[in-house]
Design brief:
Length: 231
Amino acid sequence: MDNKDRKRNISVAVDGPSGSGKSTLSRAAAKELSLVYVDTGAIYRTVGLAALERGVDPADGVAVSELLPGLSITMGYGEDGLQHMFLDGADVTEAIRHNEVSAAASKAAAIPAVRDFLLEMQRRAAAEHDVIMDGRDIGTVVLPDADVKIFLTAAPEARARRRLLELEQRGETADYETILHDIRARDYQDEHRPIAPLKQAADALLLDTTDLDLGQSMNRLLALVKEKIGP
Ligand code: DC
């Protein structure tokens, strides 16, 4: 490690499929380890929302690329300490969580111009702060020199059960088979796109939470990070 490396900020990359618990665990780990949590999925969701709001098909590479220069996408931290997303000045933190935005984000994320457009923003966050950043390509593309890389995953069935529970707790009705189907479809889309597909970096540590509850997953994640960067 040369001097330049030693002085840079700490970065922890957490990648994995949707519903693997990345955000919940990364957010909690950020608190525990005094790191800034960066949810990169939220940034892609903001582009997905922008396309929907402007009546553009999020899968249309040409149309979405044409939208990008006119978009103002910024990230900030509220008094609650949570990451907020702003689209042309409006706080869209809640709006980007809708189901149709998930699907739009996944489509827009497969467009190379979208990924290029958002890369700098993600790298800047890591250059300015000690971060734990979650996404799909953080360890492979965004922060290839991250101090710790974790690939967090769980069987699709386990992720579908967790999602169902989460929706039920919010009082929403949902159907397990539909959720499982959506999860598999998104996995396929994220794993098979030609650019920055979801895959475990060669030097990432695998954390499979299929048979772990939240507390156990958290302990394992913290242990893996602390092993690499110290307590
Ligand atoms: O993590 P999430 O579900 O909020 O992500 C929304 C979509 O954005 C997801 O379908 C994949 C995409 N994404 C990506 O391609 N690269 C990232 N670093 C983060 C998310």
